[in-house]
Design goal:
- The protein is built from six helices and five strands.
- The chain is an alpha+beta fold and 139 residues long.
- Strands 1-2-3-4-5 form a five-stranded antiparallel beta sheet.
- Strand 3 (24-27) and strand 4 form a beta hairpin.
Length: 139
């Protein structure tokens, strides 16, 4: 990628699409890039993630290595806590799905009707939005 100075900014041909004239600008003072051709924009981290097809952590490690810095590694207890947190999110998802199924069960039609008629939520959103957004509370 050939970069040239253009005033206070830098210009180059965009690495995200093919072009003949430079439309990719880099503003070093503000720390962002923008392509007027395809609309790609972001900071150095977004650029590395998109250009090198990396996830967040590997992109941070790559940039840190280039800057001569080390990225702190997760402690084992942090890994355990994150795994436990994920399990709680899975549990909440399972509970939300179970309540949704119960709400639409024909045997419990009176509950759905009650929610539609009385709930303050029903006054704000259509009933289809109630289910899609999972904003229905159960006793």
């Amino acid at each position: 990628m050939r970069i040239t100075r253009a005033g206070r900014e830098f210009k180059a041909c965009c690495p995200f699409h093919k072009e003949k004239t430079p439309s990719f600008t880099i503003n070093d003072a503000k720390g962002f890039y923008y392509c007027f051709g395809c609309g790609a924009k972001g900071d150095v981290l977004n650029f590395v993630m998109k250009h090198d097809n990396l996830d967040f952590r590997p992109a941070v490690e790559l940039l840190a290595a280039e800057a001569g810095m080390a990225v702190p590694q997760d402690a084992p207890r942090d890994i355990v806590r994150e795994k436990k947190q994920k399990n709680l999110y899975d549990l909440m998802e399972d509970a939300a799905q179970w309540f949704t199924v119960q709400l639409h069960d024909p045997r419990h039609g009176d509950v759905l009707e009650y929610v539609r008629r009385v709930s303050w939520i029903a006054k704000r959103w259509r009933s289809s939005a109630l289910v899609s957004r999972r904003i229905i509370t159960m006793p």
